[in-house]
Amino acid sequence: MPIEGKIKVLIVDDEEVVRDFLSRLLTSKGIEIKAVDSGSKAIESVKEEKFDITFLDARMPNMNGLETFRELKKINPDAKYVMMTGYAVDDLLKEAEKEGAAFSIKKPFDINQVNSLVEEYVLQKAPKKVMSILVVDDERVVLDFFKRLLRDYDVTTINSGEESLVKIKQKDFDLAFLDIVLKDATAQLLYSRIQEIRPNLEIMLISGDPARADGLMHLNCIRGCLYKPFEIDKIFSVIEEVKRSKGIK
Questions:
Q1: Tens digit of pLDDT for each residue in 17-45?
Q2: Of the residues 26, 98, 216, 242, which has the fewest C-beta atoms closer than 10 A?
Q3: CA 2 to CA 11: how far, in whole Å?
Q4: CATH no. for residue 14?
Q5: pTM for this one?
Q6: Distances from the Cα of 5 to the Cαs of 12, 81, 123, 190, 242, in angstroms?
């Protein structure tokens, strides 16, 4: 399976068969590869460009893996370093891990293990998405309530319909809590405009009168209606539903 998001890997091993195997395996996943056969060449490579992951043979002539690792880490301390060995050099591997090497793997390689190491790095590197929520209500007490309640989310509060449309044009929200009656607009009018701008924006209506929501509940992307005073469990329930539908962790 190709890995999303371009990453760069350096392979350092004096055995050509090892370099070729890892190069083919990782290139097939869309990863950019550079392979060298010595510690000195690895150092020169890292001085010239930045790599995300380095696979480093523990036993090489002239400069072994631990010595090379120490020099590479001085140049690029943020990279992940994976020590490789086909020999009993546990002391060397333990020392490398103590000094910051992320992993060690034994030859012959377990392909699944190599894949897991790279995929784990990608998951660690990927920024976590925080759900983006818009709250539109002309009562300051309501906006303050949502701001406090949803402090773990990316929350924007707005007290007018026209301002909310400007913000929706600027930002792709995951969910909007929308008061049915505002001083400058109604939910019906705003819904039509929102559909033109962000047709997939999920909307949860806000109202103090259940009868006002009845004519809107059939509309696309309307998740339901929150009635004042709010049921906190219902707020978090709809948030979880939208997170699942959008694949947000």
A1: 999 999 998 888 888 999 999 999 999 99
A2: 98
A3: 19
A4: 3.40.50.2300
A5: 0.52
A6: 23, 19, 10, 37, 25
